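thoughts on these tokens:
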Amino acid sequence: MGVYEDKLRDFLTHLQLERGASPHTVEAYRRDLIDLGDFVEHSDPDTIPAGVLDDYTVALRDRGLSAATVRRRMAAVRAFFKHRAREGGREDAGRTVPLPRLGRSLPDPLTKAEAEAIVTQPDATPRGLRDRAMLELLYGAGLRVSELVSLRVSDIDLAEGVVRCTGKGAKQRIVPMGKSSTEATRIYLQRGRPYLGRLQRGDILFLNHRGQGITRQAVFQLVREHARKAGITKDVTPHTLRHSFATHLLEGGCDLRSVQEMLGHASIETTQVYTHVSADHVRKAYFKAHPRA
């Protein structure tokens, strides 16, 4: 058992014995904090930076969880960190843990030029070719970061230009990759992936420098890195590229049902948030172009 599990067990014991929490409450905290542990790869909770918690919040939303569920999970994280502060492990006492507002906020998509600048930023080294292929799939196919890191080589059909991914609820869908994503993935498979690590295991598509599957945290970091190098000042996450994928499709005239299918949303209501962004784009275009506006 690792350090994360040890400190989580101590916190759950504190809830039960010192605060008199019910077994149901303790179990709910346990489930939520085990999920956090998986996301941070079981790092010491006393050393997890606030930025990683922001990424975790985005990842929870990316799974399609409601704002209320995300808020409840992050409240559990805050309670855990406050306990660690009382034990002398942290200084922030959980104050930096974000608690999302209830209600759905509109996404802040990239412009088409910003998205282009980010996905074309990586160089031609093996890692650069990998990053280019990942960025192209995040923006060109609208994949969730969890879907991206779980892709297998066999999930890619370069001849047809499609990718098969497994989304929320283990539901599979097939999404068009587009010419840019297809070509970037082809080049990565030919000139990038074979040079990442000596002992490559299995069929995992995207590898780190040790030949193992790349992690969600690494994807968050490289997206931010390439956005910074491209001169983008706004905070960019993998989900920003997914937001931009959907928004730019609607702005280009794609119908909502098709966007829903490509995003893997179970409900059309989840996809409809993008119609507000697209409508705002149309309104601005009208006032800019019409002589009587």
Summary: Strands lie at 156-157, 162-166, 172-176.
